[in-house]
UniProtKB/TrEMBL annotation:
<keyword id="KW-0520">NAD</keyword>
<feature type="domain" description="TIR">
    <location>
        <begin position="20"/>
        <end position="195"/>
    </location>
</feature>
<dbReference type="GO" id="GO:0006952">
    <property type="term" value="P:defense response"/>
</dbReference>
<keyword id="KW-0677">Repeat</keyword>
<keyword id="KW-0611">Plant defense</keyword>
<dbReference type="Pfam" id="PF00931">
    <property type="entry name" value="NB-ARC"/>
</dbReference>
<dbReference type="InterPro" id="IPR042197">
    <property type="entry name" value="Apaf_helical"/>
</dbReference>
<dbReference type="InterPro" id="IPR002182">
    <property type="entry name" value="NB-ARC"/>
</dbReference>
<dbReference type="Pfam" id="PF23286">
    <property type="entry name" value="LRR_13"/>
</dbReference>
<dbReference type="InterPro" id="IPR035897">
    <property type="entry name" value="Toll_tir_struct_dom_sf"/>
</dbReference>
<dbReference type="InterPro" id="IPR036390">
    <property type="entry name" value="WH_DNA-bd_sf"/>
</dbReference>
<dbReference type="Pfam" id="PF01582">
    <property type="entry name" value="TIR"/>
</dbReference>
<dbReference type="InterPro" id="IPR058546">
    <property type="entry name" value="RPS4B/Roq1-like_LRR"/>
</dbReference>
<dbReference type="InterPro" id="IPR032675">
    <property type="entry name" value="LRR_dom_sf"/>
</dbReference>
<dbReference type="InterPro" id="IPR000157">
    <property type="entry name" value="TIR_dom"/>
</dbReference>
<dbReference type="InterPro" id="IPR058192">
    <property type="entry name" value="WHD_ROQ1-like"/>
</dbReference>
<dbReference type="InterPro" id="IPR044974">
    <property type="entry name" value="Disease_R_plants"/>
</dbReference>
Length: 1167
């Protein structure tokens, strides 16, 4: 029989730094030492500014430790235990001792035992005065008539004995034969050293960054065999890297034997002695001797290497800008085992370039990109620096949110903007007016360092051009164009990304922080602040229009963008805002009805006059092409929705990119200078044909004619030998693509989406050996099909069935990598038997088609990595998905039931799916099955026998992002079992833990005691009984099982949870452990939490690790399950054990730190 003995309650662990209220808790027996030794010790601790909790109460009432004493112990970094003659006679002292020793085991609590005129051996063996005291406690326990109280006293007595033995085995101070003043002086010095109080300073309030703190704290707590471990925090200037590193350092430096924070290395590394001074500070902080004697950098590095190898050190190197700084400050020998190095830098690649990474065993390295604050955190930080408090006038919220939007989560900008409001003459309106026009010098000073330190002038030019013209553009398109201009080198964009000056989103679109973009534009503006025509790039539409109207074009202009529609919209919005302020409409709601009527009339009249002026200005927006003739170095030109007069010969010959949306002519004039064009964009124009005479454009690579609704035919491709991308999406009148396209041997992308009048693809398309992407979404006629009536399951509909599916597939080039056939009304019968002609395919998009299962021909696409089946409403199964699949998208497939993979699949794809109540299985992720149809042998193997299961419950299921969609869904009247991650779970009828559980208790912490004759432990049955008084107590939950002995932890968040019709929930689970995760004597704790986060729309709910815990656990139950010795081939659980990524198997994808796992189908999602 298994016996589980309860020891004591312990609070759940947290990955956030612990906030301590006291440095030291002082435990002592008042009658022995209150007026002598303890009083002197307390005075010495106070003089050393060591914050000490001291209980001055004389009378102790009751059998249990006072809550304030328990809280004080848990909120202290260390405890001093004065073990005197009568210490053990006090049950409160013994309770304090037991809790202190428990805290030492679970939370790195530091313990200083002092044996005051007693022998450690007496404490260890409980003899003499300690033996007498323990004997009295035993007599009191045996005299207790209440069986439950007697049991509690017996358990307490055992805890006291263990605590006394443990404290006597520690390193200790003994008062016998020693002068108390010298003893106390030594104690205070040792405590100060162990707590590193000389480095203590106030930790600033943390706003945001909690997920980053958890990640870094996990890194610091991770005990690794690597002697040196790096953690690099990287991000743009002002994003909070130093702030975060400082917070982490102040929270954790006391956990290491030595520590050092070197701040702002980039600025301090200045000749002649910058690096030498940094070395001296490092050596001083880590306690190295003779640190002042070093007189050169090489000698300093040698001394640092020796010092770092001797102690477990926390080293923070802030603001590293060159890898040589790391070589000088840490050397190449590595650090003492358990040491940690945190680096902050604007360049994420610097750390791994230092020489330490060239050693035979390179250090372990973790990189963390620090991103900005969210809007709520940004508003909080802005208000804090503006008003010195967390709240402000709600009337200013709208204005402050505009500042928040502009700063885009950058803490430096938020602090500067907020602080500027404290100026007596500063107002919200002043700040709002300056946004986007000029940057605060304090912000520019920090941001511009990243620009100034770019490795080459070409990199600086690239940054300026992207900031002014190409934010929001496709990365590959930008590289094509700027390489043709001689501005972009192969590694240019990558350099900007690594230095956090640029980012690329999931769609490969260039993204730049608003502050960085404004800085780049300001650099260009400073080329000629008052005369725009003397700048290299013009991007402000008003300035561009003035330059063109006044024919001020000059040779220094390289880029110009003018979009009349955008300009008119901006002008209209500015006019509207000005009118609102002018007429006082911001307080419109406070006026009476007469004033409202008068103001409405004035508003209408002013709007009419503004419209007339705007119409007049639009006519003035027309200009002669002669305005371009002087811009001989113009390479980049955008003229959207303009009306031109004059000859097109006046366009500069050196143009590389020409964009003219809304081009008004029916064809491109022959005299337009296009010989050097790399990219031509004529989208949304009136074109009916490209040109009347064929043109030879030997440089053109990108041609975009999207949404040219009057374009009927495109041809003359023989003059475009280098064409790589042709976009014709949305050309709704297009009926023919010329066969000459077969001569575009370099064509890679052909987009014909929504060309719904196009009847066929050119036959020559099969000659395009480099074509990798073909998009024919919504082009059903292109598939060479005919309409026939085919009966579907629920209605008669017109289905599209190919006359010859094989002929269509054979017409596609073998080089095809991406094929999109979305919303083409394709049924399973519409597909060929195989796709043998396009085996290079990597991406296939079949969204919005009425297929009922994944087509068989898809299964054999051995290179397919992305399969999209979104909004396939009839889809029921995806069986044996392609072997190499990485991404499977199946959102809004409301009939989907099952997804499986081939047995040889090495890694599961990322699956994006909606919360579907029809879904019962995603193999290797989760399986929901009817318990009444489950094999009885399976239930017997779980130890689930004679159980009354709960049915008729309401449930919520989560999607792949951990979002549980409301409202609740009522299940059919059958009991269900959920299986995921090697964990089975269900709900039981009743109000308590089943009787067959070995141990039932309201305490979540146990010691396992197993019988060797029963065999190895192969699983745990865990039962949790919850009482429900509100809906907040039935929400997304996590169940954490922690083995304190082995320092391992499994946190599990089920994909499904239920709302029963009763006030009590009984949750039963089986955890299929198989690798000696639990053994006899292990100390185990169970923690159950309910932390809901409800969306603003109240239509979805998530688990939030930061929220309040609503769990109300009434009872815990735990029972061990042993290996029954069956042959694996006969194991009823064989199918479940064959799944990958389960407990008892490979959990590496869920590992957040060694032997610590968070088990969810979507990863570790925290709000």
């Amino acid at each position: 029989m298994v016996v589980l003995s309860e020891i004591s309650e312990v609070s759940s662990s947290s990955s956030l730094p612990i906030s301590y209220d006291y440095d030291v808790f002082l435990s002592f027996r008042g009658a022995d030492t209150r007026y002598n030794f303890t009083d002197h010790l307390l005075k010495a601790l106070g003089e050393a500014t060591i914050d000490t909790f001291f209980d001055d109460a004389e009378i102790q009432i009751g059998d249990f430790l006072k809550p304030e004493l328990e809280n004080a112990i848990k909120s202290s970094r260390a405890s001093i235990i004065v073990l005197s003659k009568d210490y053990a006679s006090s049950t409160w002292c013994l309770d304090e001792l037991a809790l202190i020793m428990e805290q030492r085991m679970t939370s790195k609590h530091i313990v200083f035992p002092i044996f005051y005129h007693v022998k450690p051996s007496d404490v260890r063996k409980q003899q003499n005065s300690f033996g007498d005291a323990m004997a009295k406690h035993k007599v009191r326990m045996e005299a207790e008539t209440d069986a439950e109280k007697r049991s509690q006293l017996a358990q307490k007595t055992e805890k006291w004995k263990r605590a006394l033995t443990e404290v006597a085995d520690m390193k200790w101070e003994e008062a016998n034969g020693r002068r108390e003043t010298i003893l106390i002086e030594g104690i205070v010095k040792e405590i100060s050293r162990r707590l590193a109080l000389h480095k203590r300073s106030a930790i600033q309030k943390l706003i945001g960054m909690k997920s980053s703190v958890r990640i870094i704290t996990s890194f610091l707590n991770n005990v690794s065999p690597h002697t040196t471990e790096f953690f690099t925090i990287w991000g743009m200037a002002g994003i909070g890297k130093t702030y975060l590193a400082d917070y982490i350092f102040k929270s954790h430096y006391h956990e290491f034997e030595s520590s050092c924070f070197l701040e702002d290395i980039e600025r301090r590394d200045a000749p002649p002695n910058g690096l030498l001074d940094l070395q001296k500070q490092l050596l001083k902080d880590i306690g190295a001797r003779n640190w002042m004697d070093i007189n050169n950098v090489n000698a300093g590095t040698l001394k640092i290497e020796k010092s770092l190898s001797r102690k477990r050190t926390l080293l923070v190197l802030d603001g590293v800008s060159k890898f040589e700084q790391l070589d000088v400050l840490i050397g190449t020998l590595g650090l003492h085992p358990g040491s940690k190095i945190i680096v902050t830098s604007k360049n994420g690649l610097l750390t791994e370039k230092c020489r330490l990474f060239e050693t035979q065993v390179p250090p372990k390295h973790t990189k963390h990109l620090l991103e900005g604050l969210n809007d709520g955190e940004s508003l909080q930080l802005l208000i804090l620096h503006a008003f010195g408090r967390d709240e402000h006038n709600l009337g200013d919220t709208k204005k402050s949110m505009k500042v928040v939007e502009y700063c885009n989560g950058n803490p430096l900008a938020l602090k500067v903007m907020g602080s500027s409001l404290r100026s007596e003459d500063a107002t919200w309106d002043d700040i709002l007016e300056s946004l986007g026009k000029e940057i605060n010098p304090d912000i520019t000073k920090v941001l511009k360092v990243s620009f100034d330190t770019l490795p080459s002038e070409k990199d600086k030019e690239l940054f300026k051009h992207i900031a002014c013209l190409f934010v929001g553009k496709d990365r590959e398109f930008t590289e094509y164009v700027l390489k043709a201009c001689g501005i972009c080198k192969s590694s240019g964009i990558k350099i900007l990304i690594n230095r956090c000056l640029l980012n690329v989103d999931s769609s490969d679109i260039l993204v730049m922080h608003q502050l960085l973009q404004d800085m780049g534009r300001d650099i260009v503006r400073q080329e000629s602040p008052k005369k725009p025509w003397k700048r290299s790039i013009l991007w402000r539409h008003e300035e561009c229009l003035d330059v063109l109207q006044n024919r001020q074009g000059a040779t220094m202009i390289q880029g110009l963008v003018l979009d009349m529609r955008t300009f008119e919209k901006e002008t209209s919005e500015e006019s509207s805002s000005a009118n609102t302020q002018k007429f006082g409409f911001s307080s419109y709601s406070s006026l009476n009805w007469v004033h409202k009527l008068l103001l409405s009339v004035l508003w209408w009249l002013f709007g009419w006059v503004s419209a007339m002026r705007l119409s007049s200005r639009k006519t003035k927006g027309d200009f002669d092409t002669l305005a371009l003739s002087e811009m001989r170095n113009l390479r980049l030109l955008q003229l959207n929705y303009v009306q031109l007069s004059g000859s097109y010969k006046n366009f500069p010959q050196g143009l590389r990119w020409l964009c003219m949306h809304g081009f008004p002519l029916s064809y491109i004039p022959y005299d337009l200078q296009m010989e050097n064009l790399v990219a031509l964009d004529m989208s949304n124009s009136k074109l009916q044909q490209l040109w009347k005479k064929p043109k030879m454009l030997r440089s053109l690579k990108l041609l975009n004619l999207s949404s040219c609704h009057e374009l009927a035919r495109v041809g003359h491709f023989s003059g475009l030998p280098l064409l790589e991308r042709l976009k014709l999406a949305g050309c709704t009148s297009l009926v023919e693509v010329c066969e000459s396209i077969g001569g575009c041997h370099k064509l890679e992308v052909l987009d014909l989406s929504k060309c719904n009048k196009l009847k066929e693809l050119p036959r020559s398309i099969g000659k395009l050996k480099n074509l990798t992407q073909l998009l024919i979404d919504g082009c059903s006629k292109v598939l060479n099909t005919e309409n026939i009536n085919m009966k579907s399951h629920d209605s008669f509909s017109s289905a599209i069935v190919p006359r010859s599916s094989k002929s269509f597939v054979r017409s596609l080039p073998i080089s095809l990598v991406t094929l999109s056939l979305t919303y083409s009304n394709l049924y399973n019968e519409s597909f060929p038997r195989d796709f043998s002609n396009i085996l290079m395919l990597k991406e296939l998009f079949l969204d919005g088609n009425p297929i009922e299962s994944m087509p068989d021909c898809v299964r054999n696409l051995s290179r397919l990595e992305t399969l999209s089946l979104n909004e396939c409403g009839n889809l029921k199964t995806v069986l044996c998905a392609p072997l190499m699949l990485r991404d499977l998208e199946i959102e809004h497939c409301n009939s989907l039931q099952k997804i499986t993979f081939p047995p040889e699949t090495s890694a599961l794809p990322t699956i994006i799916y909606s919360s579907s109540f029809t879904m019962t299985e995603i193999q290797n992720k989760f399986k929901i099955q009817d318990l009444s149809k489950t094999d009885e042998e399976v239930l017997r193997s779980l130890g689930w026998i004679n159980i009354e299961y709960m049915n008729y419950c309401w449930i919520l299921k989560a999607n792949n992002f951990g979002v549980y969609s409301l409202p609740w869904r009522r299940l059919e009247p059958q009991a269900l079992m959920l299986y995921e991650h090697g964990i089975f779970s269900t709900y039981l009828q009743g109000k308590e833990v089943p009787k067959w559980f070995t141990h039932r208790s309201s305490d979540p912490l146990f010691t396992l005691q197993s019988s060797p004759e029963m065999g190895n432990i192969q699983g745990l049955n865990v039962c949790i009984v919850l009482t429900i008084s509100s809906l907040m107590e039935v929400a997304p939950s996590r169940i954490e099982i922690r083995n304190l002995t082995k320092n391992s932890c499994w946190a599990y968040q089920p994909i499904m949870y239920a709302l029963p019709e009763h006030e009590v929930v009984v949750w039963l689970s089986h955890w299929m452990f198989r690798r000696n995760e639990f053994e006899d004597g292990d100390v185990v704790t169970i923690h159950f939490s309910v932390k809901p986060y409800i969306s603003n729309s109240r239509l979805s709910i998530l688990y939030s690790s930061n929220g309040p815990d609503y769990a109300n656990v009434k009872e815990y139950g735990i029972n061990l399950v042993y290996d029954d010795g069956r042959n694996p081939e006969e194991d009823p659980l064989g199918y479940y054990k064959s799944w990958k990524y389960i407990i008892g198997g490979d959990l590496s994808v869920f590992e957040v730190s060694p032997t610590h796992y968070i088990l969810t189908p979507w990863g570790n999602i925290d709000i």
